[in-house]
Amino acid sequence: MARLIVLLALLATGADALTRATPSMGLRTWVKGKLGGGSKGTILTESPAGKKQDFLEASPYWDQSTVPVNTYKNKSPYTTKVVSCKRIVGPEATGETCHIIFDHQGKMPYWEGQSFGVIADGTNPKNGKPHTVRLYSIAASRYGDDMTGQTTSLCVRRATYWDPEMGKDDPAKKGVCSNFICDSKPGDPIKMTGPSGKVMLMPEEKADTDYIMVATGTGIAPYRSFIRRLFTETTPAGEAYKGTAWLFLGVANSDALLYDEEWQATLAKYPDNFKLDYALSREQSNSKGGKMYIQDKVEEYADEIFDRLGKGAVMYFCGLKGMMPGIQDMLKSVCDKKGLDYDEYIKDLKKKGQWRVEVY
Questions:
Q1: pLDDT, position 86
Q2: Which of 37, 221, 328, 342 could form a disulfide with 139 if both were Cys (CB 3.0 to 4.6 A apart)?
Q3: What pLDDT score does 30 carry?
Q4: May I ask which residue range the UniProt record assigns to the signal sequence (predicted)?
Q5: Would you call 61 a catalytic residue per the annotation?
Q6: CB contact at 8 A, 214 and 318
Q7: Is the pTM of this model over 0.70?
Q8: Mind spelling out the 3-state secondary structure of 78-106?
């Protein structure tokens, strides 16, 4: 009710901001742009009345034979323009994460689950050569946050290094590309490559396929593109979808949650087709009394997950590579309890396209 009152108040006053409210965080600005507006800086929360997002589809829509790959390469990148760059975490979050919208004028088509490369301006002081490309998972559907097919979005955490001896961040060790992106302003030119990758695509031919999506931090990006395609936009894939999309997100605390308001809206509208679970390591405890990490939250639903995998579900993992050892150890333990050979089990899932990993 509180969230509804806030939204109604904003609309009534014409405030040019969409705010979010969560029990632990209160109110904070999420993204500039009036709800339902048409500017490229707007994040639409539903399709405009009478409009469908069906103009960037294959024929049939699930045919992956025409997925664009490496349209723009490192030596000949495409120059986009920044539309907006907004911090999307609260003051108590561990680090700063930004949502950045880019205008590509429809010249960089891509599919959900792919990545774009970004080349920071300037040169590497160590060798005097241009900075190398850095890959980031795309955080918007092919239609973009404004649903025009003209924009794309990235979810980027600013990489910094705290030097205990200096007692502050060491600027010499900061992530060049992530800081370049998070420091960007509307109108700034950004050189991008890609799109790249097919590992994280959704196999949409079977409309009843379950998608189990496991993420830590900014690994949420490809799943946001999935969920917008399936539930937020009016797409052929979304209209046909009969399965369950199950999102697991691991972050440190409530202030570090990413796109929570979007997930809550989807959950409220599609309770039979969308499931949501958070692992908040600094606020929750696992069954053993320790910190709640992503593998602990997934383990709570091990039986149901294995059952869904047995029926053809596709399981995705995206985030820092450090998440995988814990996930693998947990799954191996569950396999042992079920009398399954872990290596053979995962090998079979990979063979069937049910096990998809993109970590960095």
A1: 97
A2: 221
A3: 36
A4: 1-17
A5: no
A6: yes
A7: yes
A8: EEEEEEEEEECCCCCCCCCEEEEEEECCC
